[in-house]
């Protein structure tokens, strides 16, 4: 198996250093897991503060009660933004779920488990921000 990262082929020593037993296949899985996690981190870093600012602006605007079938444009924008963020993170979780590590690939298995936990935490963070919006919707209906 040929593994080239950023145009550079790793040495056998580098592969051995990063894997359980120097298997290039495990090294490739570790790279796949690491790249998937980094994409999720980058995506959330790019969008989280903007999403949180838009949520806060919406909450500060003291929104009026509405029915879901007639969602105001500002609320629909938050709904769609959360949907996009959640969808990407759920796709990342599915991609990690599709990574099959052989039983003896201990490092890859640990990396995959850590990546799943961190990606789930990112999703939980986005869901917690969205929960503030949903709670506001509930309170204005009371």
TrEMBL record:
Domain annotation BAG: ranges: 76-130
Gene Ontology MF terms in the entry: protein-folding chaperone binding
Coiled-coil region(s): none
Signal sequence bounds: none
UniProt cross-references to SUPFAM superfamilies, sorted A to Z: BAG domain (SSF63491)
PROSITE patterns reported for this sequence: BAG
InterPro entries in the cross-refs: BAG_dom_sf, BAG_domain
Protein name: BAG domain-containing protein
Upper taxonomic lineage: Eukaryota, Fungi, Fungi incertae sedis, Mucoromycota, Mortierellomycotina
């Amino acid at each position: 198996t040929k593994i080239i990262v950023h145009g550079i082929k790793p040495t056998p020593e580098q592969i051995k250093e990063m894997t359980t037993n120097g298997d290039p296949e495990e090294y490739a899985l570790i790279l796949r897991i690491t790249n998937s996690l980094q994409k999720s981190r980058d995506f959330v870093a790019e969008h989280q503060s903007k999403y949180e600012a838009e949520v806060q602006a919406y909450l500060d605007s003291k929104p009026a009660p509405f029915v879901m079938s007639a969602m105001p444009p500002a609320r629909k924008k938050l709904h769609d933004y959360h949907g996009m963020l959640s969808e990407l993170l759920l796709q990342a979780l599915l991609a990690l779920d599709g990574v099959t590590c052989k039983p003896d690939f201990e490092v890859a298995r640990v990396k995959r488990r850590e990546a799943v936990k961190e990606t789930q935490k990112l999703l939980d963070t986005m869901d917690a921000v969205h929960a503030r919006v949903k709670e506001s919707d509930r309170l204005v209906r009371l």
